[in-house]
Amino acid sequence: MKHTISVLLQNKPGVLSRVTGLFSGRGFNIESLSVAETLDENLSCLTLVTRGDNSILEQITKQLHKLIDVIKVTDISENEYVEREMALIRVKAENTTRAEVLRVIDIFRGKVVDVSPKSYAVEVTGSATKIQAIVDILRPIGIKEIVRTGTIAMARAPKK
Amino acid sequence: MEKLKGSLAIIECLKEEGVKTIFGFPGGAVIDLYDDLLDSDINHVLVRHEQGAVHAADGLARVTGDVGVALLTSGPGATNGVTGIATAYLDSIPLVILTGQVPTPLIGNDAFQEVDIVGITRPCTKHNYLVSKAEDLVPTLREAFHVARTGRPGPVLIDLPKDVVASIVDFTEKKPIRMQNYQPTYEPHMGQVEKACKEILKAKNPVLYVGGGVILSNANEELTNLARTLNIPVTMTLMGLGGFPGSDPLSMGMLGMHGSYASNMAVAKSDVLIAVGARFDDRVTGRIDAFAPHAKIIHIDIDPTSISKNVAVDIPIVADCKHALTAMNAWLKTCGEDLDKVAASHVEWLETIKNWTDKHPMGYTDEGETIKPQFVIEKLDELTKGDAIITTEVGQNQMWAAQFYKFNKPRRLITSGGLGTMGYGLPAAIGAKMAFPDEVVIDVAGDGSIQMNIQELATSRQYNCPVIICILNNNYLGMVRQWQELFYDKRYAATIMEVTPDFVKLAEAYGAAGLRATKTSEVEETIKKALELVKKQTVIIDFRIAREEGVFPMVPAGKATTEMLLV
């Protein structure tokens, strides 16, 4: 089962490699990973997406906790949460397809961020599923290049 | 606030932590530190190979419970130490390893004798540091010792760039260390303690399964108390031997791959298994689904990752073993149950276990004048009254030592359990002897493993640190040969030591005494002679043993622990 885990850690050199080394050394899988500084510049927040049954997830969270530079580990997919990914897609846009491409971008609430006579570069954000959907639609038209971020996620605030 | 040269600040930090002896090997990157060590009252032991330095520090740590310290230079000095570091990591031994590093402006330039040792040791240290700023030096050293010795102990490496060590630093006042992200749980959850105790009181066939955590937390008395109060039989892992007296009638000896018949049967038939400071290693459990299949499992461990890692646990207690056992003993005392009655109810269970032991005791067949290695260990046990510090190499020698020496006290068996590092025993023996000069220290070795760090004979001589090295010489890499005999059609690929040095002459070349025994009738006299000689010098005994003797019982890898091959 897919899990999105949020890890708060010290913003120091080598910390990311402790996390990735743990995953490779113990044979845990990382589907995506994204990390950046938090409001407190001494701390980073890392979001990673992984898969595994409950016992693997239990080990992943415990092993992450055991790293001295890790402060907090939350499996945010246990409760309601929002997740976003971003993709930059350069898609072929020639005379016959230019209008069609723009329509698709509009449907997905994407933005054109670079234009050339033969292509558009599109910025699109959303859940992993949404990004996959636009990729699937644009693929037959001709994707020349694609760059995707890992997932970032945040737990939803309590309703009351 | 005092200003000090970095190297002097390091020495002050070592003194602050109570370090008296360190083991090391110099080089360009640590030359400043060595220069100042010369004037300090810290005893530095020059080893002959960096692996030996880390093992010796590890041996000292295991016998004393203190943090062992090794000092290595950059590059190859540091990489030679890695096996030692991994050995300590797998057995949770507190070490601080100081490595020299090229000056900070050169880091990353492939400078002479530069390696990224922090990167290399990340997966085999509890934590590690590169001190890139002078102001971090003193706080890092203090934090490193704190991390090494608290919680589940382990090795911590500090990489020290040459310019940082040579710079002037603030020697700040020592304050209690509080780390936001590292606070091991020492005290057990009382609800869990109560649940565990209630389960134990209900048990008909309880077994205590004891690991190295009991020794690390000095919980042997509390454990013994629990076992004796309720008449619970005890089995120990290799790392747990000595955690409960081996001669006690409740002791079943070791369990697992080369454990006793009674231990493995008892675990298989138990209804409550109390794991204390043990980690359900594959050498203990055998086929995992057949391990303690009928038992409710209680697991005490300070490291939450150990719990439910290999075997699902019914009642976990995350705590220091000593604290948890103290709490359990206290709860039992005041719970209102008649504990004597509970203890008496286990008599039948103990009878069953005794029958297993009688049926298949730890034993071997007598072959007249052909020396049996087990007999050598029995004689060692007898002639040292079970009171020597025994270090081992790895392989058959290690298992025979574990099976036939009665470890009645903790911190007496010093062995590489988790990593299984050949070449561990001699340097570890030197470390142990440094800590306790008045104790008899014996390295039980094989002719294969002793050659992996034999150069440390010179260290033992230079520092007047005499130990006995008992080589159980069969001219084979015996444990692998045994597997080949049993599971590979006796195809002895690369396990025959066609050339072995003359160990007696080798001993003499190093200024040690060399003895040899080739017949059973010579064993006792030779050991007695060695015990006399070792008062002055290191002794090697070359025991020519039955060449194809195997270690039994044996649970073939991947089989259930009840599927033992017996003698």
Highlighted features:
heterodimer, A: 160 residues, alpha+beta, 5-stranded antiparallel beta sheet, 4-stranded antiparallel beta sheet, 9 strands, 28% helix, elongated, B: 567 residues, alpha/beta, Rossmann fold, 6-stranded parallel beta sheet, globular
Condensed summary:
With 160 residues, chain A is an alpha+beta fold. Helices cover 28% and strands 41% of the residues of chain A.
Description:
The complex is a heterodimer of chains A (160) and B (567). Chain A is α+β, with helices and mostly antiparallel strands. Chain A has four helices and nine strands, in the order E-H-E-E-H-E-E-H-E-E-H-E-E. Chain A has helices spanning 15-25, 54-66, 98-107, 128-138, and strands at residues 2-10, 32-37, 43-51, 70-75, 81-92, 111-116, 119-126, 143-148, 152-155. The two termini of chain A are 29 Å apart. Chain B is of the alpha/beta class. Chain B folds into three domains: 2-171, 3-Layer(aba) Sandwich (Rossmann fold), CATH 3.40.50; 190-359, TPP-binding domain (Rossmann fold, 3-Layer(aba) Sandwich); 373-544, Thiamin diphosphate (ThDP)-binding fold, Pyr/PP domains (Rossmann fold), CATH 3.40.50. Chain B contains 23 helices and 20 strands. In chain B, the strands form four sheets. A six-stranded parallel beta sheet of chain B has the order 3-2-4-5-7-6, with helices on both faces. Chain B has a six-stranded parallel beta sheet with strand order 11-10-9-12-13-14, with helices on both faces. In chain B, helix 1 (6-16) packs across helix 2 (31-37), helix 11 packs parallel to helix 14 and helix 12 runs antiparallel to helix 16. The A-B interface holds A 10, 13-14, 17-18, 21-22, 25, 55, 58-59, 62-63, 65-66, 68-71 and B 118-119, 122-123, 126-127, 130, 147, 179-182, 303-305, 308-309, 312.
